[in-house]
Write a structure and sequence with these properties.
Layout lengths: L1 H7 L1 H18 L13 H17 L3 H24 L1
Length: 85
């Protein structure tokens, strides 16, 4: 069953969920606003390392989902920062 395979792969599900969350939250910001993230890029790098650590060191699917979500959100934020500079 395809849904069962997706549900078992918490890393993919976390990345998908974080991407959907980021896109929805970005769509609520007016296009003419100057909405850049206040934290420096180093914060995103550290968060991505933490997310990758949670993924690689855990056998728990919930922890892997959280790690993948952290990784995904900060990857999108870093990409958005680079696009606005």
């Amino acid at each position: 069953m395809i849904l069962g395979d997706i549900m078992e792969n918490s890393i993919v599900l976390g990345l998908i969920a974080s991407s959907i969350y980021f896109k929805i939250s970005e769509s609520t910001v007016p296009k003419d606003s100057n909405c850049s993230y206040l934290a420096p890029a180093s914060t995103d790098y550290l968060a991505m390392i933490a997310g990758a650590t949670l993924i690689s060191r855990s056998n728990d699917q919930i922890t892997q989902f959280i790690g993948a979500s952290i990784l995904g959100i900060h990857l999108w934020q870093l990409t958005d920062k680079k696009g606005t500079q």
